[in-house]
Every structure is written in structure tokens, then in C-alpha cells.
């Protein structure tokens, strides 16, 4: 597969629960994963630049932003695209920590899916009859997203991901590699805890999720603010650019002040 020029991505620390020292080694592991593991099968490479807390990312870069949760994303003004209208991924570290997930695997997941389908509009069409068929979302980590299928680069857990062969139902089982960790054995197979977005072209039900148990889960409600699932089912003309970083900085100061006031109010009286 021909190699494209590396995509420039700023990894931005906007979190209050992770320090710069905690995020930097994860960025190094993500760089290793993209260049050494993801680029060979996908032909896509990226150069990651870490942007410490309170700093501004370089212009004309895609963003991978580490946030606390979706409420913070909205409060600070991180929306569907960067302020320059470029691709944007979000990692909700506090939410992951709350539910016992590894935020580093989520960061890997978001980064790889942004590289494979930055405009969140690619699909694979599986036609079973003359007038019916199913569109599969071109998401490269959803099928194997559970943390227990991830792998470590150094001490950092990163997400497993599928190869292009996973979307190609003519590929033979047994002799084809379908994902990085070789847990998947056939095209379109979903591992336990995995899922994929599907759109039945004649069904009229819009985007749904199919889980590993092959159960449909309706996704009519919008997901986390600016999540890929949310954006895939939202018309492109309704996407909202993020604020410029000078405005995000101002909002971050107000947000932290509000959070500190809440904590102060909750403290028991001496």
C-alpha cells in the first residue's frame, strides 16, 4: 500500500485529572503504534506533537484532545472540528478512570479511527440482494475495543485494531490476519465487548449498533458531545467548529473556578 505523507496531529492536555508527566509517555507509545503497527497495513502515518496544559497547538494540525468528560468538552468549547475545521478526536479520561477503563487505550482507539476515517463518512457496503444491503461504518477499533484485547507498548496499554482485510468478506479464514493481535478469525467478526455501526439501506431506521452477540442497539440519541458515533449520524452541515484556543483558555479558567467552588461547598464544616 502506498505511504501517504505523515499527518500532523496535536495531542492536547485539557484534562484536570491527568498531569503532563502522565500523558507524555502515552503520546510516545501512540507514536510508536502509529508508525510501527498501523502504518504497514493501512498506509497512513502521523507525527504527534504533545501540547502541555495551557499551551496552544500549532496551526493547521488535527487535534486529539484529552479531556475529563463530555460536559467539560462542551464547557470549554471543543466541538465537532478544530477551530480551523480540521479533524478532531476526544478522549474522556475522567470517565474512563471512573469506570475502570484505561484512558490510554481510549486515546489509541480515537487516534487510529481518526486516521482511518477522519471525516467520519466512510462505509463498506455489503449487498445481499438486488434491492437490499447493509452499510458498515469504517471504524477500525470498535470490533475489538475491549481493553483485554489491547496490547502494551512499554508500560502503556493501546487498543487492538482491525486491518483492511476485516472489511473484505472474500478473505479466507486461517491464512489472513484481520487485526493487530490476531484475535479475530474472520471478516466482520466482532469480539466480546465489540460492536460496529450498521445502516440498513432500505430499513429506514438510521444508524444502529450490532454487538458481538448480534443484537441491534438503537443509537437514535446523540452520544457524548462530539463523539464519532454522534457525528456519524449527524448531517455534516450541523457540525460545529471548536472555539479558538484563546477562548478555550478563558473558558477553562472559568470551568476550574466553578469546579473549585463546587468542591468547597461540599466540604464539611470544621
How does this model look, in words?
The chain has 270 residues and is an alpha/beta fold. It contains 6 helices and 11 strands. The protein has a 5-stranded antiparallel β-sheet, with no helix packed on it. A 4-stranded parallel β-sheet has the order 2-1-3-4. A two-stranded antiparallel ribbon has the order 7-8. β1 (7-13), α1 and β2 (46-51) form a beta-alpha-beta unit. The longest helix is centred in the N-terminal third of the chain and has 23 residues, at 20-42. It is globular. Mean pLDDT is 90; it is low at 218-222.
Write the topology of this structure.
Layout: E1 7-13, H1 20-42, E2 46-51, E3 62-67, H2 70-76, E4 88-92, H3 93-98, H4 103-116, E5 123-126, E6 134-137, E7 151-153, E8 156-158, E9 195-200, E10 207-211, E11 216-218, H5 228-232, H6 245-266
Parallel strand pairs: 1-2, 1-3, 3-4
Antiparallel strand pairs: 5-6, 6-9, 7-8, 9-10, 10-11
Helix pairs in contact: 1-4
Outline of the structure:
With 270 residues, the chain is an alpha/beta fold. It has six helices and eleven strands.
Amino acid at each position: 500500500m502506498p505511504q501517504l505523507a505523515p499527518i500532523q496531529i496535536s495531542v492536547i492536555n485539557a484534562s484536570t485529572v491527568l498531569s503532563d508527566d502522565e500523558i507524555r509517555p502515552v503520546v510516545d507509545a501512540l507514536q510508536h503504534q502509529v508508525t510501527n503497527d498501523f502504518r504497514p497495513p493501512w498506509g497512513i502515518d502521523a507525527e504527534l506533537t504533545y501540547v502541555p496544559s495551557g499551551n496552544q497547538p500549532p496551526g493547521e494540525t488535527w487535534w486529539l484532545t484529552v479531556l475529563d468528560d463530555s460536559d467539560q468538552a462542551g464547557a470549554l468549547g471543543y466541538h465537532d472540528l478544530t477551530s480551523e475545521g480540521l479533524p478532531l478526536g476526544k478522549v474522556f479520561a475522567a470517565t474512563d478512570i471512573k469506570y475502570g477503563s484505561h484512558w490510554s487505550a481510549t486515546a489509541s482507539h480515537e487516534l487510529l479511527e481518526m486516521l482511518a476515517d477522519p471525516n467520519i463518512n466512510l462505509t463498506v457496503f455489503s449487498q445481499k440482494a438486488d434491492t437490499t444491503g447493509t452499510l458498515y461504518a469504517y471504524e477500525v477499533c470498535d470490533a475489538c475495543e475491549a481493553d483485554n484485547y489491547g496490547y502494551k507498548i512499554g508500560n502503556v496499554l493501546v487498543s487492538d485494531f482491525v486491518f483492511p482485510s476485516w472489511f473484505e468478506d472474500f478473505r479466507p479464514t486461517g491464512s489472513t490476519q484481520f487485526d493487530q493481535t490476531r484475535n479475530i478469525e474472520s471478516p466482520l467478526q466482532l469480539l466480546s465487548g465489540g460492536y460496529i455501526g450498521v445502516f440498513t439501506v432500505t430499513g429506514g431506521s438510521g444508524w444502529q449498533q450490532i454487538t458481538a452477540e448480534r443484537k441491534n442497539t438503537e443509537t437514535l440519541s446523540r452520544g457524548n458531545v462530539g463523539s464519532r458515533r454522534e457525528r456519524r449520524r449527524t448531517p455534516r452541515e450541523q457540525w460545529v467548529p471548536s472555539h479558538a484556543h484563546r477562548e478555550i483558555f478563558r473558558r477553562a479558567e472559568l470551568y476550574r473556578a466553578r469546579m473549585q467552588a463546587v468542591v468547597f461547598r461540599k466540604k464539611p464544616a470544621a
